[in-house]
């Protein structure tokens, strides 16, 4: 999946050691989308990607990510794990996504039309049917 927006918060790097004794690190960010009603999205880069994509507050990026959920002690936790970040210019982020035009009424089959019903003969009857 992908989303475009501006980095609004850079959280401190988190490091640790796995049960197997391997060192790991994670960098977390908050991205704000450029929509009519902006949304804030918390995501992270884990392992080697934490150093591969250094981001700063104010950077406008296109983030490619996966959504993961896991269970711990009977509760479910969901995270957004980034796997690629590309710099995007502000104009790209502010532009609305391209949407195919929708035709309000389909064309009638040949020989038919969408004509309004004929007027009522009784002028006191104001109901349209």
Summary, kept brief:
By secondary structure, this protein is mainly beta. It has a domain at 2-91: Beta Barrel (OB fold (Dihydrolipoamide Acetyltransferase, E2P)), CATH 2.40.50. It is 7% helix and 44% strand.
What CATH first level of one domain would be assigned? Answer: Mainly Beta
Distance between the termini: 50 Å
Strand runs, count: 6
- Helical proportion, percent range: under 10%
Mean pLDDT: 82
Given as residue ranges, the uncertain stretches (5+ residues, pLDDT < 50) are: 96-103
Molecular shape: elongated
Main beta sheet strand tally, sense and closure: 6 strands, antiparallel
Order of H and E elements: EEEEHEEH
The total of helices stands at 2
CATH architecture level-2 label of one domain: Beta Barrel
Task: Provide the gyration radius in Å.
Answer: 26 Å
Strand content: 35-45%
Quick one: CATH superfamily of one domain?
Answer: Nucleic acid-binding proteins
CATH topology of one domain: OB fold (Dihydrolipoamide Acetyltransferase, E2P)
